[in-house]
Input
Amino acid sequence: MEEIKQTCSIKKVLIADDEEHIAALLAVILKKEGFDPVVAHDGQEAKEKFLSDSPDLVLLDLDMPRVNGWQFLQWLRQEKKLSTPVIIVSGRGQMNDLRKGYDLQADYYLVKPLNAKDIIKGIMVVSSLKKTGQQNDTEGKDET
Output
């Protein structure tokens, strides 16, 4: 996994998940691979930490209190007009959930349960898309 540290442009990762044990496990996996994880346990806290910590990527659960994952993603893309990569990490694996995630401009979608390799692979895919400019890019586009 040394290759990850050398090729990945993503360093700081916001983990937004209300299940503390899952957020802690994700943080351990990311730290082990050389990332700098920041954890939020609900969508409102995720908004606050996003603004204060400027993460390179967000791992986003959908079912969270106060502000859910859908609302966070909508806020990020439509209100803030930011293209920070978002990987949805959710137990919701129905086709309509995946469609909605991509309609709201998520960059990748992982269905729980998952393992460390799934997470790292998702980050690498999003990182390579970011490098090649294929990511959902709403930031800096001229809308005229």
